[in-house]
Amino acid sequence: MNASIFLKQPLIAVLLISLSAVAAPSRPAEYTNIKPLLVEAIDAADGKANGTIVGPIADKFRTTTGSVAPVLVRVSTIKSFKQEGCRRLNVRMSQANVMTTDGKATDFGIDYGFNMCRNGSPPTEGMNLEQAGKILGNRGPD
């Protein structure tokens, strides 16, 4: 009996399983809000996170754009602050097949950025906390 036949069959099976995992595109994780993506980007070695927004936020987006395409979110780190776990993040929300006023389908996207720490607070770097305290302490009733 030829032993090489038995060695080749498991090897072929392993190669086919590996190729199917590589060839099959993975779907982005789904989120009902962007906060988990922000924290994921803060913790990621490359400073990035991607996902699909679902639920009320996605429904509002679809109502506004008129497209039924998924609402994709891409978060990237623009800057790391000295304060541990604090970053300047860019958030891009996008959707395909949005109709323009002249009737052509196009991709729609909106970008916004903000400073955030892992715990959800803004970084204190660059803030004059004493001055901010004076201003906030002197505020009268609105």
Would you give an account of this structure?
The structure is a single chain. The chain is α+β, with helices and mostly antiparallel strands. The chain has one domain (24-134). Helices cover 35% and strands 32% of the residues. The protein contains four helices and five strands. The chain has helices spanning 3-23, 35-43, 56-65, 129-137, and strands spanning 30-31, 48-53, 71-80, 86-99, 105-117. A hairpin with a 5-residue loop joins strand 3 (71-80) and strand 4. The protein is elongated. Residues 3-7 and 18-22 have low confidence and may be disordered.
In terms of quaternary structure, what is this? single chain
Mean pLDDT: 83
Strand content: 25-35%
- What is the strand arrangement across the widest sheet? 1-2-3-4-5
- Number of E strands: 5
Written as H for each helix and E for each strand, in order along the chain, the element string is HEHEHEEEH
- Low-pLDDT segments, ≥5 res: 3-7, 18-22
Brief synopsis:
This protein is of the alpha+beta class and 142 residues long. Helices cover 35% and strands 32% of the residues. A hairpin with a 5-residue loop joins β3 (71-80) and β4.
